[in-house]
């Protein structure tokens, strides 16, 4: 884990005024390092946290966004359809046990659930819109990183027959490309939209 990201984890708890639960950091690292993961790994988490660090001034509750990012793919079963819900449940339980206020726990839960990325998704708050855009920033990465990302996704779905995967993956990418805007926030549109459209069209 990137040292700056690790410091951000500690700082978030300190700023929120509650004690970091013993062992939680290492349990999350272990979760993000599970062998079935190829894209949803510490690499993805670090990329998200690094990007978020430079966008703190645009956030209403930056510490909650940081913690939501740590938890947003903490549960990842490639064959399941409730990973976000289970990740959110883990977050709410851990944050509540640590003494974080109920309204803050609910905001973190909503942030995590916003990453379901429905085709017609409309994040409900500025923080959730920004967090979703951060999670999707990979689509607007440079060509080499995008190619790596595509290979990593294929590895996670290695159990799916190639012809079936090709059709389903094309549907997913087309869903993003068909949006009027891939990203919700103006900042992320300016930074990633054009490259994301080039990547998706090529893929």
From TrEMBL:
Source domain of life is Bacteria
Query: By its UniProt entry, which InterPro entries does this protein fall under?
Result: HD_phosphohydro
Arranged from A to Z, the UniProt key words for this protein are: Receptor
The protein's name:
N-methyl-D-aspartate receptor NMDAR2C subunit
Q: Which organism is it from?
A: Massilia phyllostachyos
User: Where is the organism placed in the taxonomic lineage, from the top?
Assistant: Bacteria, Pseudomonadati, Pseudomonadota, Betaproteobacteria, Burkholderiales
């Amino acid at each position: 884990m990137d040292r700056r990201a690790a410091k951000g984890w500690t700082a978030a708890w300190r700023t929120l005024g509650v004690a970091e639960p013993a062992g939680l950091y290492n349990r999350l690292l272990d979760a993000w390092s599970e062998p079935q993961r190829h894209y949803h790994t510490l690499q993805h988490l670090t990329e998200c946290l690094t990007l978020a660090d430079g966008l703190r001034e645009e956030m209403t509750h930056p510490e909650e966004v940081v913690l939501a990012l740590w938890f947003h793919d903490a549960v990842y079963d490639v064959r399941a359809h409730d990973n976000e819900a289970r990740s959110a449940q883990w977050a709410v339980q851990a944050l509540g046990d640590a003494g974080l206020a109920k309204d803050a726990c609910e905001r973190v839960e909503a942030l995590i659930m916003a990453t379901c990325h429905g085709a017609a998704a409309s994040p409900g708050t500025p923080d959730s819109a920004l967090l979703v855009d951060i999670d999707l920033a990979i689509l607007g990465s440079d060509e080499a990183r995008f190619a790596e990302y595509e290979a990593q996704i294929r590895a996670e779905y290695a159990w799916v027959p190639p012809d079936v995967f090709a059709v389903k993956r094309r549907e997913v990418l087309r869903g993003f490309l068909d949006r009027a805007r891939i990203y919700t926030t103006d900042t992320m549109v300016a930074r990633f939209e054009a490259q994301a459209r080039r990547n998706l069209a090529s893929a």
